[in-house]
Amino acid sequence: MTDKTITEPIENKVAESGLITLNLEDFFHPGKRVLFDIKDWLFREQILKEKDFREFVKNHDWSQYQAQNIAFTCSSDAIIPTWAYMLLTIAVEPFANRVVFGNLDTLETVLFNEALAKLNPEQYKDVRVIIKGCGDIPIAINAYVEITHKLLPFAKSIMYGEACSNVPLWKKK
Questions:
Q1: What predicted TM-score, i.e. pTM, was given to this entire model?
Q2: What is the pairing mode between strands 128-132 and 98-101?
Q3: Is the pLDDT of residue 12 over 50?
Q4: Going by C-beta distance under 8 Å and a sequence separation of 6 or more, which residues neighbour residue 140?
């Protein structure tokens, strides 16, 4: 029996397929996320006393939120006037990266939407796109919805997962 040496190059079918993988982790803002609950600043966790609230906002060390992403909320069943959240935003704005009203999911949605707004979807015109599904960073479902929305008018096809095992979602007719 003779020894045969393989002289043909190994073919990388994935590389030759023209697929482009879009990883949403590339759009993840690395800054710390903070849920800022104002219920502890309320009288008996129920009533906002304007004078006390303004005093607290004035004396609070807002610099501790430098470059952080803040979600203001109130977990008690209190009625908070709109201006209170506006006052908080004014106080933290010089330090924070991003400020929203809501929970951490709302904050994540806003951060991804802002990052994806900078993407030029025309660069995916007539391209087969795989939106990477698994990774080291948990990606908000809204980010997958938003990227799909942005790509639909341009991409040739959209898939989810990895090149070697993907879920076909949509194909241009």
A1: 0.83
A2: unpaired
A3: no
A4: 105, 108, 109, 112
